[in-house]
Amino acid sequence: QVQLVESGGGLVQAGGSLRLSCAASGRTLGSYVMGWFRQAPGKEREFVASITRIGYSTYYADSLKGRFTISRDNAKNTVYLQMNSLKPEDTGVYSCAASTKWPATTLSDFGSWGQGTQVTVSS
């Protein structure tokens, strides 16, 4: 099973940017479809984006298209989430996850999860 560790979260002002990273160990990242989810305080975890094993295709939550970009570097065993034009409502814990399915957009599609990294956007 693959182990996932997220990094890159922090405090940022509205309108700013952050790039999250998800480093994999234990298994080759290229074996998996990868995704990002987020969970805001008091809310359910929601899908953000996913990317195919080689990165040829991506899928985004409709509300995030144009601001967030998922990418991967299999040679570095790392997946990224570039977040631009951040808003206070983007605040939450962001987690990466691994799947063997495509498309993969729901919690049940993913079998391995990282612990998450906190993103806080101030107004």
Task: Describe it.
With 123 residues, the chain is mainly beta. Helices cover 0% and strands 51% of the residues. It is built from no helices and 11 strands. The chain has strands spanning 3-7, 10-13, 18-25, 33-39, 46-51, 58-60, 68-73, 78-83, 92-99, 110-113, 117-122. Strands 2, 4, 5, 6, 9, 10 and 11 form a 7-stranded mixed β-sheet that branches. A 4-stranded antiparallel β-sheet has the order 1-3-8-7, with no helix packed on it. β5 (46-51) and β6 form a beta hairpin.
List the helices and strands and how they pair.
Elements: E1 3-7, E2 10-13, E3 18-25, E4 33-39, E5 46-51, E6 58-60, E7 68-73, E8 78-83, E9 92-99, E10 110-113, E11 117-122
Outline type: globular
> Compute the gyration radius: what is it?
13 Å
Strand content: over 45%
Provide the structure class. mainly beta
Helix content: under 10%
How many helices?
0
What separation lies between the terminal Cα atoms? 39 Å
> What's the β-strand tally?
11
Largest sheet: 7 strands, mixed
What is the typical, i.e. mean, pLDDT?
A: 96
Q: Low-confidence spans: pLDDT under 50, at least 5 residues?
A: none
Q: What string gives the helices and strands in order? A: EEEEEEEEEEE
Give descriptors for this structure.
four-stranded antiparallel beta sheet, mainly beta, about 0% helix, about 50% strand, about 120 residues, seven-stranded mixed beta sheet
Structure in a nutshell:
The chain is mainly beta. 0% of the residues lie in helices and 51% in strands.
